[in-house]
Amino acid sequence: MFELPEHLAERCRLANAIDEIHGNGPIVVWLKSSLRTHENPALDAGRILANRYNRPLLVYQGIDERYPHANARHHNILLDAAVDLHHGCKQLGIRYVLHVAREGHRSANLKEFAKNASLIITDLFPLPPWNDWVEKIAAYSDCPVVEIDCHCVVPLTVFGKSMDRPFRYRDATKKLRKRRVGIPWPALQVEQPSPWDGTLPFEPVNINILASHDARLELLHQCNIDMTVHPVWHQRGGERAALSRWEEFLARGLSGYSRRRNNAADPNGVSRLSMAIHYGMISVMKIVREAHAVGTKSAEKFLDELLIFREHAWHHVYSTKEPYGPHNLPHWALESWNNTSEDVRTTVLSKENLEIGKSPNHLWNLCQTSLHRHGELHNNLRMTWGKATPYWTQSLEESLEIGQHLNDKFALDGRDPSSIAGVQWCHGLFDRPFLPPLPIMGVVRKRELETHESRLDMTSYRNHVNRLAYQQQRPFVILGAGFAGARAAQLLTDYGYDVLVLDKGSIPGGRSSTKRRESGTYNHGTDVLNNSNGPHADEHIHSMLEGTDVRCETRVVSIEAKEDFVLLEDDKGFSWEAEAVILTCPLPQLHPLLPQTTPNEWMEHPYVSNWTLICTGTESIPQNILDYNNDSIELIRRGIDDPDSNVLIVHMTNTWSKMQLEGSRDDITQLILEELRPINAEWFDDAGFHAHRWRFSRPLGKANRLHHKRISFAGDAWSEPVGTVEAAIKSAEFAALELVWKLHYNQVLDPISLQTTLF
């Protein structure tokens, strides 16, 4: 194709019907999943054709928010890769540009390229939505769009078939492998192509800012991605780290691979290259060639995993129109699952509990913790881990969906043909029946957690899994036990950190707390006014705070940020030393606590104020009271969503409340009752009354972020939509990430360097 050398031409697939290069536009190499400059077929093809057709060359990497499970973990690794791609391309004299979709930068860049490019080359990645994006660009473009396999030794475009068993794939591809395994990757003998200097349809990210941890975090903050999945702090992405890891394993680990590979308690018994291979940060062709040259039994076993089991999965997915779902399982497995569909599950677990490793089995929980905290799971254990979900889910479909979700959300090598095949193997793919049939699993192969645990050094594995990214000396302290504080505490606790929550109220919940009195139950928080909260919202808050040390009736009056810790003191003279703090108070209340740190304008930050009258009657509330309103009343409602509720909540407007803001409770009660007098209802005659002032009910504008080494901020003023529970939750998720991010990178001695060269 386009007169490419054979080793490249055989890897090409034309994505549209245009097979001639025309126009004077650039040749664009769009890298999605092959993020390297060495032995990169897509990049090599671009360089060759740019020279042959005298076209300028541009290498484009786009990091989208729409890929499955887009989160801070995956994004951070992709940014690592971008740094190395930038420097590798610079050394080759190629212009490289990075686009990160984020607030203010969500334009359809590739469509613009498609209008003006003479050729678009991209790496072949046979999974949705990536292959869907290629199809759309191919249909839209007036130039050829070519996909090139950069991932497999035996190209997908050469074989690309599904075989029912790995050994059949081994036999069918023997000759194809033999011709390619030991052959060196041809070095390019081409002149340096002209870099494209045209106008870009977007503002590229300045790669230099990625060396700044604060700037990188700010970039992530602008992205609409999941901030609850934290980066794997000890794992660097990019080409340099991948090559270094391979060289280390080749020199010190490969010789013992066949003996050590199945021991999950031995972290160095395997290559730990699956993340680098998934992102295409290292050439599989290079790994295979150099391992083949070793020629030992261990090397042969290592090659078996790469060339048979991995590539078998890739060819299967490539040949499958819909790679997800039970329809991919063999007939015998589907029949078996159908036969056991009515079998009783003694324990059914939610996706949320499974995500954080809350199952009845200790080993499975450690496996999930390894995925959750470190983004990796030893392959031998992953098979046992995946075989457990059918016992805790209600159907084959649910088991497959949850297994894939858990893997792809947390694993650095997730969202990959290999991991899809792995999850489906746990349900019968590429396997055979095992008799006699068993409950739930039927004739699908089982792997018992208890059996696996008996042959594993659990102490070593537990210690390996439970290690933390940041070694705490003191607890993380969160001030405020509302939605923001509870969510931040939940995340940090789930990641294994020691967390202490302090709150001035008598119970957790803040504005969302539900009061339970002998006279009645009610929720009088002003967050119900914007429909962002409902009755008994504090139950969600209590659930989030489960397992966290919470101390109520604690009013912190001073916070002093030291070099190595933060000192907090309450109004009773008690003090706490915190590793770092997250503050969730309204901005005007924050300024007095941190007078040297917070901006003066925080004192004047606009907030809605609200007086609320709680009326407790002896009977349920008549409908005519609930229907009444006037210009001074914002809302009249039941204390809880119950027709028999005897508690009435009257919320006054911001205008009315500010005029009476400093009034006494008794005076306010009488003034509100005057507003209610036109109702003339006897219900009020025997009622009890209590007025509550929300001086800082809801913020009216978003706060400007403040950067501090050991202090983060959360609450409904720190995200959007401002003044909502949603904003409080989102801000808390980012604050938890920010806290560990800053502490970790301040603890690390060698910051990200842009000076190291690849070659």
Q: What does this entry look like structurally?
A:
The structure is a single chain. The protein is of the alpha/beta class and 759 residues long. Among the domains are: 6-164 and 187-221, HUPs (Rossmann fold), CATH 3.40.50; 326-465, Orthogonal Bundle (DNA Cyclobutane Dipyrimidine Photolyase, subunit A, domain 3); 472-508 and 545-605 and 709-759, FAD/NAD(P)-binding domain, CATH 3.50.50. The protein contains 29 helices and 20 strands. The strands form 5 sheets. Strands 1-6-5-2-3-4 form a 6-stranded mixed sheet, sandwiched between helices. It has a 5-stranded parallel sheet with strand order 11-8-7-15-20, covered by helices on one side. α13 (297-318) packs across α20 and α19 packs antiparallel against α20. The longest helix has 23 residues, at 725-747.
